[in-house]
Write a structure and sequence with these properties.
- Strand 13 (288-293) and strand 14 (298-304) form a beta hairpin.
- Helix 2 (51-65) packs parallel to helix 6.
- This protein has one domain (3-66, 154-324): Beta-lactamase (3-Layer(aba) Sandwich).
- Helices cover 34% and strands 17% of the residues.
- The strands form 4 sheets. It has an 8-stranded antiparallel sheet, with helices on both faces. The chain has a two-stranded antiparallel ribbon with strand order 3-6. Strands 4-5 form a two-stranded parallel sheet.
- The protein has helices at residues 3-16, 51-65, 97-101, 114-119, 123-130, 149-159, 163-175, 188-196, 222-233, 246-252, 313-324; strands spanning 20-27, 30-36, 46-47, 182-183, 204-205, 219-220, 237-238, 241-242, 257-259, 264-266, 271-274, 279-284, 288-293, 298-304.
- By secondary structure, it is α+β, with helices and mostly antiparallel strands.
- The longest helix is centred in the first third of the chain and has 15 residues, at 51-65.
């Protein structure tokens, strides 16, 4: 890639996508672009918001490969035998892991009760308390924060280990991803700083019980995000080792549900972008993205500072990046 094109790309980023902190593009398994903005460097991790969900997908797949979880059709409550179901509540008893993975589980709230969630002692229990109700299982309902923590609760119960320990052994360390500590809020200000402001925090947010978040809360560098994308492009193989089964990745990155109002397709915690090219993406608030296009052998990782309603990153990738790196060796 000649310097003139790189300069033009950087100009477009600064002009139209000013909250981007770092971006890595990989073609045919090689890094063909790496750039940092807003004072960020390659070593600095950012909160990737809902990109966390797609990392959870890998961990659920690994737990299944190792026999800790026998099937995505297992009922959620099988993992929480001590949980007391509220009187008259029936729907929750039928919700499966698959329903959580595909965002087709119903919840008993119209507006998410974030204050109650964040101030509770267990975010898993808070999510279970809101699961079910009169909603219909099988109807798409995207749960940004409250709800996905049920999956990390299941991981902890099924493996009998802290989620971070399981993740480090089976995913992070093999990939060279440095997530070394739990981040537990000591104040509301700390929580707000993570969610809406620039911070120097690294690690993975956990609730007071030490259960890591599943829908948000993971801090990664752009290079680490690209490693997750490359792992999926490689059908789960990294340095000759099968970390996640190819069958799980194939199943996770095909359409299982659809957000009809927005015309968006969903797999297992991955958004399906183009079925013809088999492309898919992890999308996080503020414009955080891991984009994988097997047809073009392309991975794009974009880490961004939080802003409300950022410009569409997928449009940026398709309009600028894919044509730019189309013929790159």
């Amino acid at each position: 890639m000649n310097q003139e094109k790189i300069t033009e790309l950087n100009r477009v980023i600064c002009r139209d996508y000013g909250n981007i902190a770092g971006m890595v593009v990989q073609k045919n398994g090689k890094t063909v672009y790496e750039g940092y903005f807003n004072g960020y460097t390659a070593e600095r991790a950012l909160h990737v918001f809902s990109v966390t969900k797609s990392v959870i997908n890998a961990l659920i797949g690994i737990a299944m490969d190792k026999g800790y979880i026998k099937s995505v059709d297992r009922k959620v409550l099988e993992f929480f035998p001590d949980y007391t179901v509220k009187r008259g509540e029936k729907t929750i008893r039928s919700v499966t892991i698959r329903d959580i993975l595909t965002m087709t589980a119903p919840y008993k709230y119209k507006s998410a009760p974030y204050t109650k969630y964040f101030t509770s002692e267990s975010w898993v229990k808070a999510s279970l308390d809101l699961l079910g109700g009169r909603g219909e299982i099988g109807k798409f309902r995207y749960a940004p924060l409250i709800g996905p923590d049920i999956l990390t609760g299941i991981l902890a119960k099924a493996t009998g280990r802290p989620v971070l320990d399981f993740s480090r052994e089976n995913l992070f360390v093999p990939l060279g991803i440095h997530v070394d500590r739990n981040v537990v809020f000591q104040s509301k200000d700390e929580q707000l700083a993570i969610m809406t402001k620039e911070s120097n925090i690294s690690g993975w947010v956990a609730d007071p019980q030490g259960i890591n978040t599943a829908g948000w809360g993971l801090f990664l560098t752009p290079t680490e995000m690209a490693k997750i994308g490359q792992l999926y492009l490689n059908r789960g193989v990294w340095n000759g080792r099968q970390l996640v089964s190819a069958q799980w990745i194939g199943e996770s990155t095909k359409e299982h549900s659809r957000w009809d109002e927005l015309g968006l397709k969903y797999g297992y915690l991955w958004w399906i972008i183009d079925e013809e090219e088999r492309s898919y993406a992890a999308l996080g608030d503020g414009g955080n993205v891991i984009y994988v296009n097997p047809a073009k052998n392309l991975v794009v990782a974009i880490a961004s500072l939080f802003v409300p309603r950022p410009k569409d990153r997928i449009a940026f990738i398709k309009e600028y990046l894919e044509p730019m790196f189309e013929n790159q060796e």
